[in-house]
Amino acid sequence: MASKKELQVAQKRELEKKEETTIPARIFVPNADIYETKDGLNVVLEMPGVDKNSVDVRVEDDVLKVDGKLDFSKYKGLQPVYTEYNIGHFSRSFRLFGKIDQSKIAAELKDGVLSLMLPLAEKAKPRAIQVN
């Protein structure tokens, strides 16, 4: 007959084994590209499979922050053998400079790509000055 301590060790091993067979929570950093246009900047982030309701975009202290998660509940009950797919929470931050009009930043998530439009402030846009 097993002692109480042996039973506790066996239970602990079972729990550890169970934890090893589930998809671990991860934190990942989505790939980003930044493009310059005549009207401002366009920040593009890859996030395939992410629902727009799972993304939080905000500006705090001149920093553009993008946080969210790729919910893996759709994989519930599946036993991963091998996966490279990003699952879990993600976060990216971009320091804004004074030339961006923070009140007009827009975001769109389409086909797994989050596009953030950062317009230049009117005073920062290039303009021609007439020579008298």
TrEMBL record:
InterPro entries: A-crystallin/Hsp20_dom, HSP20-like_chaperone, Small_HSP
PROSITE patterns recorded: SHSP
UniProt-listed Pfam families: HSP20 (PF00011)
Family named by the database record: Belongs to the small heat shock protein (HSP20) family.
Gene3D superfamilies: 2.60.40.790
Domain SHSP: 23-132
Protein name, UniProt field: Hsp20/alpha crystallin family protein
Organism, scientific name: Bradyrhizobium zhanjiangense
